[in-house]
Amino acid sequence: ETGVTQTPRHLVMGMTNKKSLKCEQHLGHNAMYWYKQSAKKPLELMFVYNFKEQTENNSVPSRFSPECPNSSHLFLHLHTLQPEDSALYLCASSQETGLNSYEQYFGPGTRLTVT
Amino acid sequence: AQSVTQLGSHVSVSEGALVLLRCNYSSSVPPYLFWYVQYPNQGLQLLLKYTSAATLVKGINGFEAEFKKSETSFHLTKPSAHMSDAAEYFCAVSDMDTGRRALTFGSGTRLQVQP
Questions:
Q1: Percent of chain A having pLDDT more than 90?
Q2: Interatomic CA distance for residues A84 and A114, integer angstroms
């Protein structure tokens, strides 16, 4: 499935580093999402963008900074992370119209390890 | 607010046996419901969806699910398990009441298939 791509697939960073995760969707969708998936915890919604506007921020710490320059690209900028931020970060997209069913399409994720 | 409960974090079946993964939802209005599958080190893939049409929904890989309003359930079944079905399965609900775009996911059920 190549509708939603994420880079890098794996990332190891120190707590003082700055890095960015990239997501690109090739489906013509207008909404994009960041999720965090930690071991033994449900998927946690982090951010929602609809038509490039952030419509939801679920109390995410400021060390995570999203950016959505257009409806096809979504970034997650990371700085001064903590070890507990190690997780799989998933990007998703969907088409938001009055008739759609809200299904989301996911990328393969970025496995982040904070040392 | 909507919620999803998946009964059983781990389910083990023999190859060729029936697969039954349980999902119960809570929603103030008729919801849209989804099942996703996640293989190791991959993102989530949509298996099937219920969008208020037929209550029995057929998906990919031989899976199907039945929406039962009286039981607030949307259980996932497959008549005969295959080794390749071993993965984690997530039930999700969309909030049709508020129009909130993001899905709410259950905590997942890991399916093991024994030879």
A1: 67
A2: 8
